[in-house]
């Protein structure tokens, strides 16, 4: 059978890794796909730049349209990233009847509904395993491996840079910016690193996971995102004393009245496997009604781990080239006409437990005032730590863990606690999930 011809847009970290994996494992890949998969063309920004891959046998161009309009190309691999011009390139490739493989989470999270509709119309595949959690085959696991289940919830560490920063801060007491710079140098961080630390990147990935888990359209604009920049060493230490770790989680949960989609720092019990996922590694726990909880762990970023997912998609597309479009695995796991518009809940309706840290005056009734306000809002206390004042300080740190409550009750309680004369400064609040 003649080789499948691939054109790659972008030969950066992931593009270079993809060339290397495809070349190194060519024989094994051909045995799996039933035919050779060959990169014949690639577009780059700068023809003279040094690359991590050997480009021998690949015709380079600076114009992606040379590839998109090449009638010999079967599959376009989009590894430029970003969602602006790239969307037009991908739509044009689809219009030209090309199958597309992409690692671009923002493209899929923001424009996936339109892209998949166009792909279905043209009978082509858009594959995006590398868009979520790098080398972990989490899309395939949920879309195919767990397709007999009703998915109840999933929770994941889906940004390697953020996890690397939290891990280094906890283990080595390193400074936030110093660790971020290292993640950038290692090629883990996004072009705009605020996407990593503010939860935008994780929000893109969560959007995709939620759609394939629940059969809902992609809707990034409804994801609640909160970053890790407010996490202090104090909170990390108190959390540890209480038996918890702080992780930046993406959580999607089906509730009776809608779906929670949220990315935020989260206390999780240290005995959970996912609490022990460190460095740049990613992990996702998926709870299905039949399988129970299952955990997927691996490298979430980097050249070859991400290339591993890109190449797996290329093999899938190569195998499906001769199948009827209607018999292929649907892009979002559910048939396109069977997607449902379950409401995504506003943050005020989230149900979660909390860690609260506040400073109160060291005098009778100060703690009672706080607990009374919580009781007035039907918030039950699970654990409490009160520390002695440090040195001459008159304020004492109070740390509380609460049971699950409605977020708007907690918001109202915090407003009242912060208004108490005996409480100084802001209440530091971090959500807590037991992931049972
Ligand atoms: N910036 C992302 C991360 C890269 O750190 O996880 C992989 O999507």
Describe the structure.
It is a single chain. This protein has 436 residues and is of the alpha/beta class. It folds into three domains: 4-135 and 303-333, 3-Layer(aba) Sandwich (Rossmann fold), CATH 3.40.50.720; 138-299, 2-Layer Sandwich (Dihydrodipicolinate Reductase, domain 2); 348-432, ACT domain (Alpha-Beta Plaits, 2-Layer Sandwich), CATH 3.30.70. 36% of the residues lie in helices and 26% in strands. It has 14 helices and 17 strands. Strands 7, 8, 9, 10, 11, 12, 13, 14, 15, 16 and 17 form an eleven-stranded mixed beta sheet that branches. Strand 9 and strand 10 form a beta hairpin. Helix 5 runs parallel beside helix 10 (200-214) and helix 13 packs antiparallel against helix 14 (407-419). The longest helix has 18 residues, at 105-122. It is elongated. The termini are far apart. The model has no long low-confidence stretch (mean pLDDT 95). Bound molecules: L-homoserine.
């Amino acid at each position: 059978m003649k080789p499948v011809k691939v054109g790659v847009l972008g030969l950066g970290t992931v593009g270079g890794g993809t060339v290397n994996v495809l070349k190194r494992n060519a024989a094994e890949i051909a045995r799996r796909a039933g035919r050779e998969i060959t990169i014949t063309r690639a577009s780059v920004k700068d023809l003279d730049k040094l690359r991590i891959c050997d480009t021998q046998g690949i015709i380079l161009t600076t114009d992606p349209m040379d590839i998109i309009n090449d009638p010999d190309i079967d599959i376009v691999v989009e590894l430029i990233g970003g969602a602006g011009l790239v969307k037009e390139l991908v739509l044009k490739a689809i219009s030209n009847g090309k199958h597309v493989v992409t690692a671009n989470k923002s493209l899929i999270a923001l424009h996936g509904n339109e892209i998949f509709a166009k792909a279905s119309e043209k009978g082509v595949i858009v594959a995006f395993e590398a868009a979520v959690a790098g080398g972990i085959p989490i899309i395939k696991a949920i879309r195919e491996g767990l397709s007999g289940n009703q998915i109840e919830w999933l929770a994941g560490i889906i940004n390697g840079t953020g996890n690397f920063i939290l891990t280094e801060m906890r283990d080595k007491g390193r400074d936030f910016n110093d660790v971020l710079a290292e993640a950038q140098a290692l090629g883990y961080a996004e072009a705009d690193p605020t996407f990593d630390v503010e939860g935008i990147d994780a929000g893109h990935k969560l959007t995709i996971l939620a759609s394939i888990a629940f059969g809902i359209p992609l809707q990034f604009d409804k994801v609640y995102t909160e970053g890790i920049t407010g996490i202090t060493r104090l909170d990390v230490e108190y959390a540890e004393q209480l038996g918890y770790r702080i992780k930046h989680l993406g959580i999607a949960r089906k509730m009776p009245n809608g779906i929670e989609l949220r990315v935020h720092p989260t206390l999780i019990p240290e005995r959970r496997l996912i609490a022990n996922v460190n460095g740049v590694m990613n992990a996702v726990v998926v709870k299905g009604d039949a399988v129970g909880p299952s955990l997927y762990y691996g490298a979430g970023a980097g050249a070859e781990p991400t290339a591993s997912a890109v190449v797996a998609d290329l093999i899938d597309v190569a195998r499906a080239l001769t199948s009827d479009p209607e018999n292929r695995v649907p892009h979002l796991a559910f048939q396109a006409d069977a997607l449902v518009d379950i409401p995504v809940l506003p943050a005020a309706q989230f149900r979660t437990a909390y860690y609260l840290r506040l400073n109160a005056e060291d005098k009778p009734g100060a703690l009672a005032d706080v607990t009374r306000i919580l009781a007035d809002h039907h918030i039950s206390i699970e654990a409490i730590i009160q520390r002695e004042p440090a040195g001459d300080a008159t304020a004492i740190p109070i740390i509380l863990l609460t049971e699950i409550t409605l977020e708007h009750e907690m918001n109202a309680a915090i407003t009242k606690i912060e208004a108490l004369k005996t409480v100084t400064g802001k209440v530091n609040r971090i959500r807590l999930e037991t992931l049972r």
